[in-house]
Amino acid sequence: MIQEVFQIILQNFGIGSKPQSYLYPYFKLEQSDQPYLVNADIDTASNGILTYYRGKLLPDAHSHQLRLVSGEENHIFRADGTNVYFNNTRLSLKDNQKLYTLDIENSNNQSYLFNPIDGMVYVNQFAFDPQFAPYHLLSKYGDHSNHALFYNDTGIYYFDVNKEKMVRAGDNPFLGQSFKEIAPAIFSNGQQLLYLQAREYRSSKGSSSSRVTRILKLDEPQVSTWQQLGNVNYNSGSVWKNGNAFYYFDQLGDSQLIRATVYHIRDPQTIQSLLKTQPRTDDIRQWIDEQKMVEAKHTTLVEAKTENRSDKYWGFIAPLIFVVIFSALIWLFKRFNLNFAPFYIRNHKLIVSNLMLTAYPIAQIQQVEFSINRTTHAKGCIGHFRIVQRNGKRSMNFNFSSKLSLNVDSQAELNQYIEQLQQQLAQHGIHSILKK
C-alpha cells in the first residue's frame, strides 16, 4: 500500500505513470511438447492431456468435453461427461446433463449444485447426507434468511459452514399441507401463514456470535384468502389484506435494518403511503419506529443456527484495531488529498468498492440509482446507490460519502459528488438517476 501511495503522489505531480493497483495472478504449468490451448469460456488451459483451472490441475479432466454446469452466473462447477468439479476439487458425483446450480440470494460464498436424478445437494465441495435425499430448496430469497433451507419428508436441513456438513434443523412444518410461496420467503396454504426470518446475535464480550434463520407461523386471526394490494417502491416489499387486517411483507431485510419479515399495519394512512408515494427505506424504518407498523405476532416452528467463536479478547482488540487503521487511513487520504470512490470501472465491469469487490458487467446494467438520506445520529446526509440489472435483479443499497472523514456530508456536497459520479457512468454508457 505504501508503494502505491508513493506512485499516486508521483502521478499527481506529473512525474510518474498510473500505478499498478492490481496484481494479476500467474502460474507455471508443467512443461509440455504440445502447446497449451486456452478456453476462455471456462477459464481453463489444456495440452490435450493435462487440464488446468486457474493454474491448478483438474484431475483426470477430459478437456474436449469440459463445460460449465448449467445455471445462472455459474463459474464454479465444471463437468466433462464423467467427472464433476468444484473449482479444482473432483466431487464424488458422476456427470449428467440434468445437473444445475441453484441461484440462492445471500448464500454467503456458498455455491449450490443440485442433481435432479437423486435429489442430492452439493455445497462447494461438500455433499448433503445421501440417506435423507431427495432434498428440495424451500426458497431462493435471502433478504430475511441467513441459511439456504432444504426440505423433504424427514425434516428441514441446512449447511453449517463452520462444521462443514449438513445439519437437520427440525421437523418439516410444510409436510402434506399444500403451501405456496405467495411472496418471497412467505408461504400460505389458505389456513396458515409461514415465513422465514433471520437474526444475528453477538455476545456482550464479543467472544462469540451466531446467525439464525427461523421458520415462523403467523399467530393472528386469518381468513382463507390473502389479497395483494400492490408492491412497494420497486419490490422493496408488498402490501396485503387478510379479512379486515393489513400487512406489510418486507423484502429489504436485516441488512437494511428492517428486522421482521411481516408487519401488521395499524395506521390506515401508512397503507396509502406505502402504495402511492414510493417510500424510502428511511420512511419505512420511521413508520416502524413510530409503531404505525408493528411486527406481527408469531410462533417459532424451526430454527437453523450457525455459531462462530473467537478469542475471548477479540471483542476488545477488534474495535481498537479498527480505530487505529481507520484513523491512519483518514490521515493518509487527507495528507495526500486522495479520494475513495464508491465504485470504479475496469475491464467492462462496474466494481463496487466493498469488501467483496462485487462486480457487475456493464452490458448487464440497466441503470444505477442514486439517493440521499438524512442521517439519524448527526445533522447531515449519506449517499446510497443501487445497481439495477437488465434481468430485473436489484442489488442492495451501497452507502457512500463525498469524502473520507468523520464529519458527515451536507446535501449540497452529495449532490455535487453524485453529478461527478453520473458523468463517470455516462462516459461508459451507463444510465443513472438521482431519486428524490
UniProtKB/TrEMBL annotation:
<protein>
    <submittedName>
        <fullName>DKNYY family protein</fullName>
    </submittedName>
</protein>
<keyword id="KW-1133">Transmembrane helix</keyword>
<keyword id="KW-0812">Transmembrane</keyword>
<feature type="transmembrane region" description="Helical">
    <location>
        <begin position="313"/>
        <end position="333"/>
    </location>
</feature>
<keyword id="KW-0472">Membrane</keyword>
